[in-house]
Amino acid sequence: MKNYLIALALSCTASMATAQEWMQIHHHYEGVDWKLPIGVVEGTEVQFDNNKNIINAAIGKDTDTEFTMPYSLADIDSIDFAPALSDAEKGHNHYRPFVMHITTEGEENIVEKEVWLRCHIAIDGRGEYSNYNGTGVIRGRGNSSWEWYDKKPYKFKLDSKSKLLGLDKAKNWNLLANYRDVTDLMNTVAFETARRMDMPYTNHSRYVEVFLNQEYIGLYQLTEKIEIKKNRIDIPEVGSLLMSFDQDDGPSLSPYDGDNFWSKVYNLPMCVKSPEDLTTEQLDSIKEDFGRVEAAIKSHNYALADSLMDVASFIGILQLHEYLYNVEIDAPRSLYMFKAPGGKYTFGPVWDWDAGFDFDWSDMTTGHTFFTDYRELIYGTDPVKGTGAAYNISKFWRDLFGNADFVKRYKETWAALSDSILVAVWSEVQKYADALQNEGAYERDIKVWPMTSTSGGWWGPQTTTVFKTQEEIQKMKNWLKNRKAYLDDIIAGYPAGDDEIIDTEVKVLATINKTQAVSYNGGYHQSSQITLNRNEISAILGGAPTDLVPLNADGSEGNNTAAGTYGAWFDENGNTAAWAQGHVFIEANSLYSWSFGCHPDNCWYYDTHTVTMQYRLKNKAVNVAVTFNME
């Protein structure tokens, strides 16, 4: 056993359970007595092998279940037996950190997201909730959190539906590592705020200190998996829909998965989580149906949008992202939406908030810097135009601000929430923070996962910042306080919008063709330039353009997937795409001068690509078609 202080090794004389239900194995780590509970029934013998490993004990009612535990008698301080607590005897204090022991079959390391490993899981409820032990499977989870960070997140699936630490019965659960979040509270703040907003089926938080194959691996957040199930998204499993707006799981980065599509109107990356195994026809039908919602939003038709989607949850999602400054709405990532048969599209449950709180993306793979500025905005001071916004997010999230009724409801919702949002939520969050601090969980976790960031290097002196949990918690509280007050003024000042539906049909006035030669293996040097005649474009539009957007091959609006203010990566068919599927790119911070180039791995000699950018002035437009000839 790694890193343990062994006080006493017992013989096997106390291995027969009597009327008690829980055998408790005691061991020490960092001066603390930890208990691994194993459920036994009266008259069941706990067996040990020749190496004194526990090889068999009845798990709850499953008296035929056998498993091997790596705890040998040489590694155990003591073994005792305790009766199960009645509900009246339990404390039900869910703010405390609990203890979870995960043992994989053969103590195999969890190194993949796609491969499930058999495991045994035991949870010490510490007198607050029932203990748990049982079998199931476990694997890695997450995208950037799995790829970038040494502290790995996991998901596990129990063999039988079970209540864990007072949470409703289910098989599927998540263990969030919260690695870059020094406070470990960001998801909890989001969950508690969403609950205050009456967002549907919001997740719960339970903190657990985890031992994986007897090694302490730190503080984790145990929470529900987002799925259509009883006790989760509690709508009919047959005929219901669960989707996510997600760059990673959508066609951008997972183009061959067969469960995703680009949305019809706004070209958003969508992934269908449930039902599974859809046919192409079913996927197209979902795309068409959701396109009705998009069309209502694009036309600023609040009444129609209200009939098709749950506007309260839409406003909740928008306000939660702006309040916590979760900029992943720009990608987008981890934004869920569900629909029951005959029901409306409803946004939620909320998920994944360690990209919020003004995270410093300049050091995103190793950094822990948050809370720098509370005055940055996702939607800007005039959301429908994006004035003052830090990100040019999809107009799907902004176009309804062009309707006066929607703006009025949005303002009223925030005003009703604002007075209590910080005080009520923080009082809950502080209870978690105090318990994690007072019981030593923060201290033990940071010993295993020190929170430091290093800046500087070849361009100057190298400095290392050591992040301290309590300081970061105070920063978070101050940032939220300032953020709320700042948004009170910003939201109150939103323009009222228009009472009438705005005609957003794009009228193509002219097409300007430009042909450019590009070296097919030239790469991303961006030394090639297209400079357009601003007077010519202004004359066609009747004024200087206000916007520039990339178009797909069918003329629909695409996404800016390049790094500039304007532009995109385009695939071989002339549609906007992610870098991995891109063939040529246009990238610009100016309306009239563009850099361009090609993908050296995807483009070949003699390739020809035609891509289209579009200038707009109100309802007027001019296309600029650019043909790239590879040489």
Provide structural commentary.
By secondary structure, the protein is α+β, with helices and mostly antiparallel strands. Among the domains are: 22-224, no CATH class; 507-630, Immunoglobulin-like. Helices cover 21% and strands 29% of the residues. It contains 9 helices and 28 strands. The strands form 7 sheets. The protein has a 7-stranded mixed β-barrel with strand order 6-7-8-9-10-12-11. The radius of gyration is 28 Å and the shape is globular. 42% of the residues are buried.
Please describe the structure with a list of short key phrases separated by commas or semicolons.
alpha+beta, Immunoglobulin-like, seven-stranded mixed beta barrel, 29% strand, globular
**Main pleated-sheet profile:** 7 strands, mixed, barrel
The tally of helices reads: 9
Number of strands: 28
Whole-number mean pLDDT:
87
Low-confidence stretches: 1-19, 58-64
User: Which overall shape is indicated by the principal axes computed on the Cα atoms?
Assistant: globular
Briefly note the structural class of the backbone: alpha+beta
Quaternary structure state of the chains depicted: single chain
How do the strands of the widest beta sheet line up side by side? 6-7-8-9-10-12-11
Radius of gyration: 28 Å
Q: DSSP strand (E) fraction?
A: 25-35%
Distance between the termini: 63 Å
The share of residues in helices is 10-25%
Record the SSE blueprint.
Blueprint: E1 22-29, E2 32-39, E3 47-48, E4 54-56, E5 78-82, E6 97-104, E7 117-124, E8 132-140, H1 144-148, E9 154-164, E10 167-176, H2 186-196, E11 206-212, E12 215-224, E13 241-245, E14 260-262, E15 269-274, H3 280-298, H4 302-308, H5 311-323, E16 335-339, E17 346-347, H6 404-438, H7 441-448, E18 452-457, E19 460-466, H8 469-492, E20 507-518, E21 528-531, H9 534-541, E22 547-551, E23 566-570, E24 576-577, E25 584-588, E26 593-598, E27 608-617, E28 620-630
Parallel strand pairs: 6-11, 20-28
Antiparallel strand pairs: 1-2, 1-5, 3-4, 6-7, 7-8, 8-9, 9-10, 10-12, 11-12, 13-15, 13-16, 14-15, 16-17, 18-19, 21-26, 22-27, 23-24, 23-25, 25-26, 27-28
Helix pairs in contact: 2-6, 3-4, 6-8
